[in-house]
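// run 5 | inverse folding | seed 20
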């Protein structure tokens, strides 16, 4: 799983065809509940799907750029373009279904 920042976000997003980015913060309870789900998804997805995290406290510019107003927010990118977004605590099945539909 990648941990992205402002300095490497664009390069990492464009380097993979499919990227799932979890925008989170360590103080956020629902984010902490989502963390093991994201880790499970990362271990189960097919090669070619990149799972990444952005700590909004460390990279507030990215949260602002993508209009993240509530966390956790999971944004699904295909070929560098946002194609889907999930706000709030999501299930593993929901995330895997979103990945399958990309």
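// decoded
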């Amino acid at each position: 799983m990648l941990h992205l920042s402002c300095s490497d976000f664009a390069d990492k997003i464009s380097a993979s065809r499919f990227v799932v980015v979890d925008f989170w913060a360590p103080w956020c309870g629902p984010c902490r509940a989502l963390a093991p789900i994201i880790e499970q998804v990362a271990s189960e997805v097919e090669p070619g799907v990149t799972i990444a995290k952005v700590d909004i406290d460390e990279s507030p510019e990215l949260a602002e750029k993508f209009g993240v107003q509530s966390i956790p927010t999971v944004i699904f990118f295909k070929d560098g373009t946002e194609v889907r977004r999930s706000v709030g605590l999501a299930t593993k099945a929901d995330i895997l279904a979103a990945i399958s539909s990309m």
